[in-house]
UniProtKB/TrEMBL annotation:
Enzyme class: transferase
Residues reported in the UniProt entry to bind S-adenosyl-L-methionine: 52, 77, 148-149, 175
Role noted for this protein: Methylates the carboxyl group of the C-terminal leucine residue of protein phosphatase 2A catalytic subunits to form alpha-leucine ester residues.
The name this protein goes by in its record: Leucine carboxyl methyltransferase 1
Single GO BP term: methylation
Catalytic activity: [phosphatase 2A protein]-C-terminal L-leucine + S-adenosyl-L-methionine = [phosphatase 2A protein]-C-terminal L-leucine methyl ester + S-adenosyl-L-homocysteine
Pfam families given in the database record: LCM (PF04072)
Family affiliation: Belongs to the methyltransferase superfamily. LCMT family.
GO cellular component: cytosol
Amino acid sequence: MDDDPIIATNDDASECKRSAVQLGYWQDNYIHLLVKQTQRKAPEINRGYYARVKGVEILVHKFLKRAGPKAQIVNLGCGFDTLFWRLKDDGVQVNKFVEIDFPTVTAKKCYLIKRNKQLLEKVYEKDGEVKLSATDLHAGTYHLLGADLRHVNELEVKLQQAEINFMYPTLFLSECVLVYMESDGVNCLLSWLSSNFQSAFFICYEMCNINDTFGDVMLGNLKARGCALSGVNACRNLEAQQSRFISNNWAGSKAWDMVKVYYALPSAERQRIEKIEFLDEQELLVQLFQHYCICISWIGSEFSDIDFNGS
C-alpha cells in the first residue's frame, strides 16, 4: 500500500490551517514555523477549519478540566498539529503529551522543532533533557513518536517508551486518520485501547453522511489523488461512527455533524469570524458541514456527560 498520498493530506490540512490563521480566524503562534507560506484558501474552507479547530479545542479543554493534573493526551496521526504549544500558551499543564504519526512525518516535525527556538523552548523543561533520534523526540512531558497505527504492537512499544500511565485519564485525538485504515485495523486499535486504558476519552473528527452526490464528489477527489479510503464504511452516518466505538468495548459514544458543532460555538465568536470574509454560497458551507462530524467516546463514566452544552 502506498502511504504517500495519505501522508500528503497532512500538508494540505496544515496549509489550510495557516491560511485561516493568517486571516485571523483564530490565533496560532506556531503554525507558520511548521508550514510555509500558502495560497489563500476559499472562504468556506477557512470557515470549515475554524469550526474543526474550535470544536475539537472545546472538547479538549472540557476533558482537561475534568481529568485534572494526571491528564494525558495522545494525538494519533498528529501531522503538524500545534495543540501542544497552544495549550502551553494557555498555561495548561498535562502529565504527558504524546504525538504519533508515520515516521516520515515525525522526522520532518522533529527537524522543524529542533531548528526553531520558539518550538524547542516550549518542549524543553528546566533541568530536563531533549532526546532526539531521526524520527522520535522525548522532552519532559512531550513525546513525538514515529509509528504505524495499523500495527498495535508497535504503538504499544512507543507508548511505553513515552512512559504513558495506563491508569491515568487519557485523551485520544484523531482527525481524518481512521478513514485511511482498514476496518479490521481500526477495530484492533480501538479494542486495544479500551482493553488497556482504565479511563479514556476519544475525540474523532472525520467525514460522515457520504452516501449522496456531494459525498461521491468528496470521495472521488480523494481517490483521484491516490488516497485509499479503507475505513470509509464508518463514514456512512453518525450512527456508524458511534457504533465502531461501542462494538469495540467503549462505554458510550456521541456524534454531531459540523452544522451542529458550528452553531454550538460561542455566538460572539461566530459573528466575529463571519465578518472576516464574505461567503457567497452559504449552501456550499452547509453541505460541507453536513459531511463532516465530531464523534466522541469514553471508557469509564467520568467523561460520559461531556458535550457542547454547559461546562
